[in-house]
Amino acid sequence: xxVFQHEQLEVYRLAIEFMGNSVGxxxxxxxxxxxxxxxxxxxxxxxxxxxAEGAAEFRAAEKARFYRIARRSTAECAACMDVLQVMGxxxxxxxxxxxxxxxxxxxxxxxxxxxxxxxxxx
Length: 122
What we know:
mainly alpha
C-alpha cells in the first residue's frame, strides 16, 4: 500500500483525530449558528491539510511555512471552542479535552518548525 509522507507523521494522525472529533462537535451547532460550524470545520480541516502540504514540500522555508499555518489553525480551533462554550453548545470538559489535543498538535508543529529552521541555518 502506498503511503504519503504526511501519513507517516504522528502530528498528522493527531490532527486527523481532532478533525474527526470536531465534526461531532459541529453537528450539534444549531442551524441558525451555521457560520460557527463552518468556521470551526474550516479551521479544523486546515490543520491536517496544511501538515500534508508541508510534508510534501521539499524547500525548507516553504515546509516550515505550511507547518506554521497549521499551528495557527490550532489556535483558531481553540478560539472556536471557546465561542461555542460561551454559546452554550460545548461543555467545559469537552473544550478542555479538545484544547489538550490541540496543544499537543501545536507543540509537535513547533518542534517541526524549529528543527527545520535550525537545519536550514547550517
